[in-house]
Amino acid sequence: MTFRKIADAIALFLCLCGAPVRAGSSPGPKQASFHVKNIFNVKVPKGAQTVRVWFALPQDDADSIIRNLAVATDGVVHYDEDSWGNRVGYLEVRAPAQEQIAIREEFDLTRSEIQSRVDAARTRPLTDPERTALSRFLAPTTHVVVNDRIKALSASIVEGETNPVRVARRIYDWTFKNIDYWVKDPDHLKASPVGSTEYCMLTRTGNCTDFHSLFASLAMAAGLPVRMVYGSLLKPTLNGIEVDGSYHCWIQFYAPQIGWVPLDASLANIYGKDFALTEKNKKLVELTTATGYKGPDPSKVDYYFGNVDERRVVWSIGRDLMMQPPQESGPVNALAKAYVEVDGRQFTDWTREFSYKEIAR
Q1: What is the pTM of this model?
Q2: Domain 34-112+320-359 has what CATH class?
């Protein structure tokens, strides 16, 4: 059994000692179905002896049904799990004769909306044994740090609160109010290349990974277990278009007697703070959302605390991943697309095209 499965089993056991995993869930969550394509193209450098590619697969979970997964490439693909329990595809090509290695991945997905509508009255502070059992989700990673500045900022936000839902909501509110998504002003705001707590805290901007790296650090400093989810938004504006739909990430935090609760502070920032739409940012803002942007919407701010829409696919959970077989360049920061090594060193001359088409169920 993998680490993540063990951790989820522990979390489920802790939940079953009290209330159901999804407390307050309303009937009839929305569903949507898609045919999804990932095409990876790796440009083989001259003289390369070994090319190794680890690529993201869609993850099965309680809200995702994956069907008809097929991978086409010249070579044998192996499937295994990384150190966080994500299922990953692996291709190794020795003495490659071709100038380009192509991997085509296709599958059908039916995704359900997650409706948590969390209630602070349904949970309680974590016990020391629970923190020990969930210690992996309280541990910093390379770019998600917990230092003295983070501890001080977290303490000023949380103000001694110990209820996990209230702690998470305070950090959520502070994050979306004090950080601005870079797409609002692309001429002046930029994202970090790695998803960095410190970058986001110092610049007060970034992309979804920067937002949620900072959220994760502030939460862990307050003793709240969290994990980062990497996926992609299946936007109606890109339905059926052959273009890379990129990736998106969000957070799950753990509350006893409720379970893992999702939130998306970066989308809360888009909907929760008024800003001017311009010719430069209009398209970027639209593509950043799951369902489109029509101006500030406080209901979306409340929605994305505890709920996430059905227009998503999950690629992986966690940071600082170790693969099977192990990569030689050290832990992978995150796996939203692929990771490539050539002759034992990380290689970045590759592309991914991600597209999808909504299908009738």
Answers
A1: 0.92
A2: mainly beta
